[in-house]
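quick one, 273 residues, struct below
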Amino acid sequence: MIRAEMFGGRRDIKNQIVRYHWIGGWAVLTIGMVVAIIVFPRITYLQAPAVLDVGTFSALHAGTALPKGWEPLTFMMIKHTDYSLVKDNDIVVVKAVSEGSASGLTRQVQIDPAHHPRVRWRWKAETLPKGSDFTRKEGDDYGARVYVGFEYDSRKVGFFEMVKFEFINLVHGRYPPLNAIAYIWDIRAPVGTIVPNPHTNRVQMIVVERGVESLDQWVDEERNVYDDYRTAFGESPPGISDVAIMTDTDNTGDSATAYFGDISFSAVAEHDR
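---
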């Protein structure tokens, strides 16, 4: 379990971790101070198959422990979102229940988005935070998010950021991710909207579901994360270093319940290139 504490009040704890250099268990202050860093076991695909299964929740048993390789990301002084393995329509999935709370589940990976650009997952939302608003820090809560984090590249940062990254690597032996894409289920923004997180432009949010029309229904998602990164950040992506799921309502004080199914990355067929 990761626990991290930052200055600036309990709301900023989650905001700075998850929305800045959050991915994969790194908790980093935006001014360059490391509060807590825990490195999870990394999955390395030396001879990658056509499909890379990152979250095979359906192969597990309801009521058991968290999936192997997935770790909780929690925030000191903030109530934790409850994650559990449950059966829904006879398939085991992750259920997330947030009541004015925030935490996530994260897993380290090593995936080349040029070879495996398609990320697939399924999710279902029962309730969404009514006060969600991506234009305000106070509204930065979502019923469901899927994060994809990207590896650090020293050529992409300025001097002061580089100092921070180098310090982290020196102390802990690993660089934190450079950027992240957050696929979100928003309550009102049009599908396809791409906006920076209100706390940092190093996390770009992409709306893939909107509103309450699809509540209580399983929705299958498929995104080309390579293309999404190019659109969001204006350049080709580095390697994928982390994947995470999250349901949070601590900023708005609302409640939300969501379910997450299996997550995988796949190669692009030759005829699709």
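Confidence is low (pLDDT under 50) at residues 1-46.
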